[in-house]
Structure formats: C-alpha cells, structure tokens
Amino acid sequence: MSAGSAGASLGAEVRAWQDGALQAAGGPPVAEPAAAGDGAGEQLRRWIALNHRYNSLLWAEEDLARRTTVGDADIAANKRAIDGYNQARNDATERVDEILLVQLGLVDPASAATPDPQAKVPPTARLHSETAGSMIDRLSIMALKAHAMRLQTQRQDADEAHRADARVKLARLERQREDLAACLDALLAECKAGTAYFKVYRQFKMYNDPRFNPVLVAEQAARKTTRAC
After folding, report:
1. Residue 3 falls inside a structural domain
2. What's the CA gap between 130 and 139, in Å, rounded?
3. Total structural domains within the chain
4. The model's pTM
5. In 10 A of CB 158, how many CB atoms?
6. Where are the beta strands (DSSP E) in 116-192?
7. What is the span of the domain harbouring residue 26?
8. How many Å apart are CA 8 and CA 226, to the nearest integer?
9. Residue 214 included in any domain
10. CA distance 155 to 128
11. Are 146 and 173 within 8 A, CB to CB?
C-alpha cells in the first residue's frame, strides 16, 4: 500500500479493506490489526487499519452512550471512552499523513513526526485544505455508516417502507464513498505531479489535555489548594 504506485487507486484499496474488516468482524468494532514491519507500505496500512479500528470503537461507544436505561455512571464511562478513542483516531490520522507525505517527497523525513514538519514542495503547488489522512478517516466513518445502513435494509422487524428508505440512503452513501475515494486519488496524483500538496495538521485536542482544558486546570488548582490547607 503506497501513495505513488503507477495506476494504483489507494482510495479503492482503502474502501475494500475497510469493508472487509467490518465484514470479518460482523460489524463494529473491527479487530486490532496485526503488527507490521518497518516498511513504509506496511506502516501505512497499519495506521490506516488502526484509524478504522478506533473509529469503529468510537462508533460502538457512541451507541452505548445513547442508552436510556442505565445509570449516569455508565454514560460517564462511555463519554470518557469516546474521548480516548477520538484522540487515538486523530493520532492515527496524523501518522497516515506523515507517512504519505514522506512517500510523496513533500516533507523532510526527519521532521515529519515533529510538531513542525518541514514541507518540500514546488513553489507553484497549491495547498489543499484537507489532508489525505483526513479523507481516509472520512472514508472509515462512511464505511461504518454504510454498514449500519445496509443492516437497516435487511431488518425483518421493520416494514418495507423503512427498508426501502434505507436502500435509498445506502445508495447515496455508496456514491459519497466513491466520490471521496476518487477525490483522494486525484489529490495524491496532483501531489505526485508537483501541482498540489497538503500538510500535517496537529489536532491539539485541548479537552483531553489537563494543561489546556480550563475545567481540568481549575480542578487541579482546587486539589492543590485542598492539600495545602
């Protein structure tokens, strides 16, 4: 799996893998990917797989968080798990971007994983606002949506009107996935040709960081004051 193979469609490959992982698992969450070698292609596939894994865990946890017959403590536990999976999903997206940018020769390899990656792009190349990794992340979420909608088309406890409506929605989701995969391939082709590039954008999930979340900062200060008394 790589960004630069002649005639290859990374978008189609990613879609097929994401669907296959869901089918093998019988739905979210998908299995944890096996350890990968040090090769860039193996590492790229592993981080794409981990992104899908974390999105699938996030999906399952979001469903649990909507329960109405459990206590507040259970929902709070779901919320904390959601925050953790969301952070891990974003971290995996950044790793995908780092690997792709190195493969495409658009970043200094030594700086790719640093807070400030150094771009190496032609002066006439346009900056694309969305990264390739974020597009792969969106493909993962849309694979989960399509899987869930496909199950709705098969429900025997719902009437035919419900199943028909689900079929229409499923067809629309599949068109969206096809379009997004094509846009991903087009961006990578432009990057390879030197006419476009993207950057690694650090997400800075401040709500997960006790140094930046103002509520957590206040809690820490209160604990310090209590201990000092």
Report:
1. no
2. 13
3. 1
4. 0.88
5. 13
6. 126-127
7. 10-228
8. 61
9. yes
10. 41
11. yes
